[in-house]
Design brief:
Blueprint: H1 2-13, H2 19-31, H3 37-53, E1 58-60, E2 66-68, E3 99-101, E4 107-109, E5 117-122, E6 125-131, E7 138-141, E8 147-150, E9 155-159, E10 167-178, E11 187-191, E12 194-198, E13 202-207, E14 213-220, E15 222-227, E16 230-236, E17 239-244, E18 249-254, H4 257-260, E19 267-274, H5 275-286, E20 289-292, E21 301-307, H6 312-323, E22 327-329, E23 333-336
Parallel strand pairs: 10-11, 20-23
Antiparallel strand pairs: 1-2, 3-4, 5-6, 6-9, 7-8, 8-10, 9-10, 10-13, 11-12, 12-15, 13-14, 14-17, 15-16, 17-18, 19-21, 22-23
Helix pairs in contact: 1-2, 1-3
């Protein structure tokens, strides 16, 4: 077991953890009890060994808590050719950031960058706000062990502890949720006037301010999607609903599991999406500014897909070929004519 934990931590350190390996690492941590002294000593020993070669990666504080900071280099998936067709998802590679809770034993956490979190009060309840910057993805583990992956330029507000008969969070942007099942305590995700109610479910929600639609996609379980308290859709595994800002159901359809949170796998898949919304997505993901001077293409709907690691220039060239426009570029500044 010691060698296996060492391997998983090395994978984490190098940002090479697959989704399955990440789940296995969390499993070792969550299943450990405070009385499980041998396991705690084993993990501490491995951390101490890693610290000798990488002092910035981990350390043990004065309270005996194991502290894990994220590596500086972000993960870049293998390069792949651009294609206008759907791309088969590779191994689930993600960049892990945020606070990781170790149930009943200790906490493993990274130091957040300055300005990446804030605490405030709403309705008498203290809420914490975590957010990702442009071109950044962040992992969060909530007080109930629900796992959340934030996409670029997104935020999530949640209490330090869920109390009462429901769990409520507020999302702005895009995130994938793996909700921890809790009998009698529905998990409610608020995105403006739209709320998504789940129990034990895995789903992706895209609700960036200013975009034309809110999209909810389900990979496991069942959810109720509401607007102003009225049910808009009931979704199960492999279903998706898109609503415009007026609450009208734009589209409800079946969706492959690999497409529910394709962004986590480095795939950028757009199915009949508005051109300006796609451009806004690229601005967030690559942290660039893109001007659309050709007004005729703004209302177009595009279906295409490409790998994130193809880069912003190739992604825009693909869109320009599809729309018959031209691309002009400067220092992180692009114009579509």
């Amino acid at each position: 077991m010691e060698e296996r934990i060492r391997y998983l931590l090395r994978q984490y350190e190098n940002n090479k953890c697959s989704h399955e390996e990440l789940e296995e690492l969390f499993g070792y941590i969550r299943n450990a009890r405070s009385s499980d002294v041998p396991l705690k000593r084993t993990v501490k020993k491995i951390y101490d060994d890693i610290r000798k070669n990488h002092p910035s990666f981990t350390y043990v504080d004065e309270n005996g808590r194991l502290i894990l900071t994220e590596p500086e280099q972000a993960f870049l998936p293998p390069k792949e050719a651009i294609s206008g067709k759907n791309i088969k998802a590779p191994v689930w590679m993600i960049l892990i950031t945020g606070v990781v809770m170790i149930a009943a034993v200790f906490w493993i956490m990274r130091k957040d960058k300055p300005g990446n979190h804030a605490t405030f009060r709403a309705g008498g309840i203290a809420l914490t706000k975590k957010f990702s910057e442009r071109s950044e993805q962040k992992f969060l583990l909530l007080p109930d062990s629900t796992e959340v992956w934030l996409n670029a330029a997104s935020s999530l507000e949640f209490p330090d502890e869920f109390a009462g008969n429901k769990r409520e969070v507020v999302l702005s942007g895009e995130a994938f949720f793996k909700v921890k099942d809790a009998e009698g305590m529905p998990f409610i995700i608020h995105t403006g006037k739209v709320s998504t109610v789940v129990l034990g479910t895995s789903l992706n929600i895209k609700a960036y301010p200013g975009e034309r639609a809110v999209t909810v996609s389900v990979s496991e379980g069942k959810v109720n999607v509401k607007r102003n308290g009225n049910i808009v859709a009931i979704l199960v595994k492999g279903q998706q609903v898109r609503m415009d800002n007026a609450g009208k159901k734009v589209d409800e359809k079946n969706i492959a599991a690999s497409k529910v949170a394709a962004w986590m796998q480095g795939n950028m898949i757009y199915d009949d999406e508005n051109f300006t919304d796609i451009i806004a997505d690229l601005e967030r993901i690559y942290n660039v500014n893109i001007l659309i001077s050709n007004k005729e293409v703004q209302s177009l709907h595009i279906s295409t897909s490409f790998r994130k690691d193809t880069g912003i220039s190739q992604a825009l060239l693909t869109l320009c070929r599809l729309t018959g426009t031209k691309l002009h570029s400067g220092d992180r500044q692009f114009e579509i004519q």
